[in-house]
Design a protein that fits this description.
The protein contains 2 helices and 5 strands. By secondary structure, it is an alpha+beta fold. The protein has a 5-stranded mixed beta sheet, covered by helices on one side.
């Protein structure tokens, strides 16, 4: 299986609604590593590393709106090449 890594930026009502923790739970359930962190502009950055099919599924989940408490207006994503493999999935 191919291992891939992406960084995604999620815009909308995504801070203060449990978005990072829901993303972490979704990612862990898919066996992914990486992080979800709040950015100063009100968006959330997500880095996901793992099996291509599972990374794509997480990205689809983000684009579909994530948790019910959130409102996702836009998701931008790009391939990412981390210096080293992440350990687990964290929130920052």
């Amino acid at each position: 299986m191919a291992t891939v890594c992406i960084r995604a930026w999620v815009y909308g009502l995504v801070q203060g609604v449990g978005f990072r923790y829901s993303t972490m739970n979704e990612a862990k359930a898919r066996g992914l590593k990486g992080y979800a962190r709040n950015l100063d502009d009100g968006s959330v950055e997500v880095m996901a590393y793992g099996e291509a099919r599972e990374v794509d599924a997480l990205l689809d989940w983000l684009k579909a709106g994530g948790p019910r408490s959130a409102r996702v207006d836009k998701v931008l994503a790009e391939p990412y090449h981390p210096q080293q493999e992440p350990q687990g999935f964290t929130t920052r």
